[in-house]
TrEMBL record:
The keyword Signal applies. InterPro entries: Cupin_8. This is Cupin-like domain-containing protein. Its cofactor is Fe(2+).
C-alpha cells in the first residue's frame, strides 16, 4: 500500500476531469460467480492455459476459519507467529450508514482520493481525483479506488478489537479503503506487511499460494521500493507453457462477504478478484519480531467485537489529499520506533526501505524546503558502520543515541506539521 503514494510522489499526478456527455458501456455487476472454478482438462493444451489464475490446478482446500471471539494471544501465536492465513467472519460491522454512491458523493465528494487501473504495473496508471468524479466513472471505466481512508469517513467504519491491544496496537500502519465495480482482478502479490483485509459491502474471492520460498523465481517477481513483491503473470490469461510451476503449487481459497476479514501474513502470495460493487478496508500492520511472546496487559477480557475506526492509532493519515505521519510531536523514541517498524520481523533494515519511508514522509516538505536533508544524508548520520553501509541491524537501531535519532525526528515532525506553518517558517 505504501507503494501507491510513493509512485504518486515520483511522477506527475494525473488529475481526471469529470466525464463528458458520452455514456460508456456499463460493467457487469453480477456477483453470482462460481469459485473455486471447476477444472476442465483438454488433451491438446496444458491445464488452465489462457484461463484466469486458479484454473491451473484444483484448490487444495478452503483457508482455515476461526471463531469470531478469537483472543488476541491465540491470533498472535497461531497465525502471526505461525505465518498462516485465517478467515474470521462477522468481525467488522455492516456499515452504519448505507454507503450508496449518492450518499458518498454528497457527503465526501469533495475529498481527493487515489485511484488506479486494475493492474498497477506502470506509474501512469495511478491518478488522483475528487471522490465525486471517481463515483461518476468507476461503474463504466477501468478504475478502482485504493486510498488511505480520510479522517472524515473513519467514524462510519469499524476496526476489529482483536488488533487494538497488545503488540498489535503499536504496529497499525494505515487503513486502505477499496471501492470497485465489475469483475476486478488484482495482480499476484505479496506485501511486506501483515494485512487484515475486510469486506464492508459486496464480495471478494481470494487465492492464497502455499510456498515456503519467500522469493520464488518461478513467479517472475518484481520487488518494489517498499519491499512488496508482485508477479508479472497475467492473472486473466495465464500462459502455462511459460508458468508450468503453477501446476504443482498448492493454493487455498476463500470468499469474503459483508463483515468478513482475511488475515494475510507478510510475504504470503495472494490474488483477489472482486465482483459487482465492492467496498473493502485493509489494515496494514508492521510484522513483529515473532521470536517475542505476546504481551497484552491492556487487552480486555470481553471486549466489543469491533470499535470505530477513528479510535485506531495509525502511523499514517490522509490529509490535504496526500499521506502524512499521524504524530505531530516526534521525539527521538518515536524516530526509533519508526525504524523498528520498518525493520518488521527482519534483523536488517536496508537502506532502500528507509529511503522509501523518508521520501514518503517528507515529500511535501521537500518541495518547499530546498535545504531539507536528503534520505541519504540522514541515513549516513544514523548508520556510522562503514562496513555495512547498505543496512542497519536491529542491535544498531536499539543502540542509536538520542541526539542522532532526534535529527530524523525533527525532520519528520516538521514534515508532519507542514500545514501548521506559515510559508516563511519553512
Amino acid at each position: 500500500m505504501l507503494l501507491l503514494t510513493f509512485f504518486l510522489i515520483q511522477s506527475n499526478i494525473i488529475w481526471i476531469s469529470p466525464v463528458d456527455g458520452n455514456i460508456p458501456f456499463p460493467k457487469d455487476m453480477n456477483i453470482h460467480v462460481l469459485f473455486p472454478p471447476i477444472i476442465q482438462t483438454h488433451e491438446s493444451i496444458p491445464l488452465g492455459h489462457l484461463r484466469p489464475l486458479g484454473w491451473q490446478r484444483r484448490a487444495d482446500g478452503p483457508i482455515l476459519e476461526d471463531s469470531l471471539n478469537i483472543e488476541p494471544a491465540r491470533f498472535y501465536h497461531l497465525f502471526v507467529q505461525g505465518n498462516r492465513s485465517v478467515v474470521i467472519r462477522g468481525i467488522v460491522s455492516a456499515l452504519d450508514v448505507l454507503w450508496t454512491d449518492s450518499y458518498l458523493s454528497k457527503r465526501y465528494g469533495h475529498l481527493n482520493v487515489t485511484v488506479a487501473k486494475r493492474k498497477q504495473r506502470l506509474v501512469d496508471t495511478l491518478t488522483m481525483m475528487p471522490f465525486k468524479t471517481f463515483l461518476e466513472q468507476y461503474r463504466q471505466d477501468d478504475l478502482y479506488m485504493n486510498t488511505i481512508i480520510p479522517d472524515e469517513m473513519k467514524f462510519e467504519a469499524s476496526l476489529p478489537s482483536l488488533i487494538t491491544c497488545g503488540i498489535f496496537s503499536k504496529r497499525l500502519l494505515e487503513p486502505i479503503l477499496w471501492i470497485s465495480a465489475g469483475d476486478t482482478a488484482s495482480l499476484l502479490y505479496a506485501h511486506a506487511q501483515n494485512t487484515l483485509h475486510c469486506v464492508l459491502d459486496g464480495r471478494k474471492d481470494f487465492i492464497i499460494y502455499d510456498t515456503s520460498n519467500k522469493y520464488p523465481h518461478e513467479l517472475d517477481l518484481v520487488k518494489q521500493s517498499n519491499g512488496d513483491l508482485f508477479s508479472r503473470i497475467d492473472v486473466d490469461l495465464v500462459n502455462t507453457y511459460k508458468h508450468k510451476y503453477l501446476h504443482s503449487l498448492p493454493w487455498y481459497w476463500t470468499t469474503l462477504y459483508d463483515g468478513d476479514c482475511l488475515f494475510i501474513p507478510a510475504y504470503k502470495f495472494f490474488q483477489v478478484r472482486a465482483h459487482g460493487r465492492t467496498i473493502a478496508l485493509s489494515i496494514d500492520m508492521a510484522p513483529p519480531d515473532i521470536r517475542n511472546d505476546f504481551i497484552g496487559l491492556d487487552c480486555e477480557r470481553n471486549p466489543p467485537i469491533y470499535i470505530s475506526l477513528d479510535k485506531g492509532q495509525f502511523q499514517w493519515r490522509y490529509e490535504h489529499g496526500v499521506r502524512h505521519l499521524t504524530k505531530r510531536i516526534i521525539t527521538s523514541d518515536d524516530a526509533r520506533t519508526y525504524l523498528l517498524l520498518l525493520l518488521g520481523a527482519n534483523d536488517q533494515l536496508h537502506k532502500d526501505i528507509f529511503q522509501n519511508f523518508y521520501i514518503q514522509a517528507t515529500h511535501e516538505l521537500a518541495s518547499k524546503d530546498l535545504g531539507l536533508p536528503t534520505a541519504n544524508h540522514i541515513w549516513k548520520q544514523l548508520n556510522n558502520d562503514t562496513t555495512n553501509e547498505d543496512y542497519m541491524t536491529r542491535n544498531q537501531i536499539t543502540s542509536l543515541p538520542s541526539n542522532v535519532l532526534q535529527l530524523l525526528g525533527d525532520v519528520l515532525q516538521k514534515s508532519a506539521r507542514i500545514h501548521e506553518y506559515e510559508k516563511s517558517e519553512l
